[in-house]
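hey so i finally got around to running the thing on that chain from the lab meeting. sorry it took forever, my laptop kept dying and i had to restart like 3 times. anyway pasting the input first so we r on the same page abt which one it is
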Amino acid sequence: MNRRHFLASLAAAGTQLPAAAPKNLKITSVQVLVTNPGQTTNGNYVLVKILTSEPGLYGWGDATCTGSELGVAKFLEEHLTPGMLGRDPMRIEDLWQTLFFLPYYRSGSVHMSAISGVDMALWDIKGKVAGLPVYELLGGRVRDKLLTYTSAGGRNYQEVEEGVRRLMARGYKVIKVQVSAPGLESGYAVPQSDRQRAATAQAHAEGVAPTEIWEPGPYVRTLPKLFEHLRKTVGEDIDLLHDVHERVTPSQAIVLAKALEPYGLFFLEDLLRPENLDTFRIIRQQSSTPLAMGEIFTGQWDGLNLITEHLIDYVRHDLAHVGGVTTGKKVATMCEPYGILTAWHGPGNISPITHMANAHVSLSVPNFGIQEYATGWGNPIREVFSAIPTFADGYVDVGDQPGLGIDVNEAAAKKYPYLRRLRPAIRRRDGTPWPY
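ok and heres what got predicted. didnt touch it at all, straight out
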């Protein structure tokens, strides 16, 4: 029986058939919208809308790149859009490759964030054409829901403990913990001192980058004591992890990974900056602490040796910066033979569109580990975006709507314009620039 007769027999039996893809489907327009719902410091989102020749058929993607938002927007408008107009949006891989090689001097955060937004929008369109959620197009669900985590930070051990207990009461099984180092006014994912908060507000008012002072030594000495405190107070039944945010030297990274071994971390995240990846070999030889890396990678080949040499346990790529859904699926596939699990980056400074894309990929890959998911989405976010992943008892999930399952209220988004808020410049006490 040929395909035509087979479909006719299904129709005669009353089986509902999927609608055929529109013929000669073309990309007719690419629109870029920069919005900051709630007017927050890290809340500028670069959204991409791809419209097609089929009336009412469009897709949304997220090209947010914190610190370079307007650069990404202009790159999309002036350099990538001309390469897409008139092309078939169903040919996602073909378009991905075309846009990757189009500028010749390729890769980097601006270029790859732009491609990420386009890629998500194309998968959104394909899902709508198929009448299926994106995870079905990626092979279908491998799990019913996604283990997730969020952060508890404080200026001392007691504040962190209280934050952990609050999150445990909400059902979290895994929690990221961060604490201030002695003598420092600020740090990654911890509350600023009153003085640092005032200095940051003043810098933002002047339109310049705030300065924060960081010293890795006190931090390396303090962190094991935090975990010792937490294991004594909240016990062994809650999984804990920590994000170094690349703020230590290679030798300090080795010391830290070894010192944290007794506390059974879920993983130790971004222990080294990308420029020092060779040190992971030494760390692996000396410590059994599980390691996660990849948050600021900008492509599927970044850190490839970490995978092929099994130097990490979790990949942390951000799908808004490495090439979208297409890259996420490829990276997960590369990791699978090595037993390396996914833990896609999911902070509040990427839009709910990427959080939805994260979930679709995470639901469909066999080697899923955990999905970071930002909390505290305020009313302006919910006014602009029609959906966010749903949280319940330590897990997140998305529905079964076609595509990514999210739409954007453009009128609402335009109420919240771009807000210039430069990221802080991190320096040692002697003035030396230091990684964020």
